[in-house]
Amino acid sequence: MRICPDCTLELPDGIPTCPDCGIAMIDPDEEPQEARHESTGHRYVLVRALPSRLWAHMLKEALGNEGIPSILQSEDVGIMLGNYGTAPLWPVRVLVPACFLHRARRIASRIDGPS
């Protein structure tokens, strides 16, 4: 059994991406994707991978309003080109300190970006 790290949909092995989110499926036993913040040393973990910077910035703002720091990660150059539209180029990952993960997931579910 595999699980989508974004919407938590469970599917049988052999399905590489979530049909709803387009995100790569993972083993439920895998550790969450994480990064360490260079200046604070906090361990950041994945909350959601969103289809565009627009959705990612909406979530980042909602998290900030609740006092939860976040980091956006993406392979795109959208920030340099000013691309904040809804047209998906590359997924944008939203990460938060591990201690805020459950609160951040509840907030993300209220934002409920497109599948």
Quick recap:
The protein is α+β, with helices and mostly antiparallel strands. It has three helices and six strands; from the N terminus they run E-E-E-E-H-E-H-E-H. Helix 1 (53-65) crosses helix 3 (101-111).
Structure description:
This protein folds into 2 domains: 1-30, no CATH class; 32-111, 2-Layer Sandwich (Alpha-Beta Plaits). Helix content is 24%, strand content 22%. It contains 3 helices and 6 strands. Strands 3-4-6-5 form a 4-stranded antiparallel sheet. It has a two-stranded antiparallel ribbon with strand order 1-2. Helix 1 packs across helix 3 (101-111). The longest helix has 13 residues, at 53-65. The protein is globular.
What is this structure's SSE topology?
Elements: E1 2-3, E2 10-11, E3 34-36, E4 43-50, H1 53-65, E5 71-74, H2 78-81, E6 92-97, H3 101-111
Antiparallel strand pairs: 1-2, 3-4, 4-6, 5-6
Helix pairs in contact: 1-3
Looking at the structure, the CATH topology of the largest domain is Alpha-Beta Plaits
Radius of gyration: 14 Å
The percent range for strand residues is 15-25%
How many helices? The count is: 3
> Strand-and-helix sequence, N→C?
EEEEHEHEH
Which stretches of 5+ consecutive residues score pLDDT under 50?
Answer: none
Which CATH architecture of the largest domain? 2-Layer Sandwich
Q: What distance lies between the first and last C-alpha atoms, to the nearest angstrom? A: 21 Å
> How would a textbook summarize the main sheet?
4 strands, antiparallel
Mean pLDDT over all positions: 75
Shape: globular
Alpha-beta content class: alpha+beta
Total number of β-strand segments?
6
Helix content: 10-25%
In the CATH scheme, the class of the largest domain would be Alpha Beta
For the record, the count of structural domains works out to: 2
